[in-house]
Design goal:
It contains five helices and no strands. It is mainly alpha-helical. It has one domain. The longest helix is centred in the middle third of the chain and has 35 residues, at about 30-65. The relative contact order is 0.17.
Length: about 120
């Protein structure tokens, strides 16, 4: 499964009306607004991804220490693959605990601008 901007919008715990508005208008925004919205979404996604990856790396190190895994050339790949597989579910859980009102406010401002800047 490939992560897309649309998948990120669907995964974040925004109210359904706001998700639909973002999904509906994203492709019709002028290039600057689309860039701004996309950048905010992906920055937030990557922050959550990094947090989950750190947890998975810690687990991999624990597994190595317990003799349940090897510290080999695939060590990082295993943690990254696990993170990628878990991410959409993990991002939902992680962002529910984070105040996204600032992110939502920024996105709403961009969506409502008439001048594009």
């Amino acid at each position: 499964m490939q992560v897309t901007t649309q998948a990120i919008i669907k995964a974040f715990p925004f109210d359904e009306e706001f998700k639909l508005q973002l999904l509906e208008k994203l492709d019709t925004l002028d290039p600057l607004r689309k860039y701004q919205v996309t950048k905010i979404l992906w920055d937030t996604y990557y922050s959550a991804f990094d947090a989950v990856l750190a947890e998975n790396l810690d687990q991999e190190f624990d597994d190595v220490g317990n003799g349940n895994a090897k510290l080999d050339k695939d060590f990082f790949k295993r943690a990254a693959d696990k993170t990628e597989q878990e991410m959409l579910e993990e991002i939902r859980q992680a962002t529910e605990q984070v105040d996204l009102s600032g992110t939502r406010h920024q996105l709403e401002e961009i969506m409502q601008r008439k001048d594009g800047v």
